[in-house]
Specification:
Layout: H1 3-6, E1 7-9, H2 11-17, E2 21-24, H3 34-48, E3 51-58, H4 65-70, E4 74-85, H5 90-97, E5 112-117, H6 122-135, H7 140-143, H8 149-165, E6 169-176, E7 179-187, E8 190-196, H9 206-219, E9 224-226, E10 229-230, H10 234-243, E11 246-258
Amino acid sequence: MTDTAILKETPWETRNIGVPSYAVAPSFFEAPDFTGLERALQALAAKHGRLFVAARLGKGGLPQVPRLQSLGFYVVECTVSPTMVLGRNPVLRAFERDPSDFLPRRYRIEELEFRTLVAVEPDHVALIKTMARDAFEDDRFHCDYQCPREIGDRRFAFWMDDLARDPEVRFDLLILRGTPIAFFARKHSHQIVSGFARERASSGLGEFFWLSTCKAVKDEGYAAVHSLISCNNLQSLNLCARCGYRFKDTGYTFHYWMNPPGGG
């Protein structure tokens, strides 16, 4: 396996974190050559001086972990894929019958609006970026002890810009008494990322909002939805369980840094 087949450039991460960035090719783990991987890492470190590399493994790849660790990779995240077959979920059916049953008593259904943005205006992007910055602390970059927090924050801001420019991405908003308090970005049947404004993080409206997005996806003609969530994010995992999602596809993410920003 050639060096270029082992490590693939990830230019979006180079932009996000300010360090030349790569990912171990998924095909590498089908027939791993750790001597080749070590040689590729050394060559790129000599070329750039600084380096970031990510690697993702399914649970079938766990026997490769000691070799990855011997090269300086370390685990930052375990992920699962919540999935829901929309026509078979009894929780969603109950929500469709009466959404108000999923509201805490302190709210009235007429105080809330669920809106899917047809076009994303600059004001919407700024609002969504603020909510994303407030919401995320459990992702792999924020949990990586070698990554400064400001890089994790900046990475989410860039991500929201990228999603807003994608014409296939839809943004759902939950609006309380005229003020947007939560967002959900989704592409077709993939629920990509969501978050609540900091002051509404414990509002009790999570089930109402997530089920509203599921209903919207169903109304658009899709049979199922799926997402990807870090196991660090227990709040979202518990929310998915309450909404009737099933979990599959355990995965593990590893990071490797050569001279990380901030000195490690």
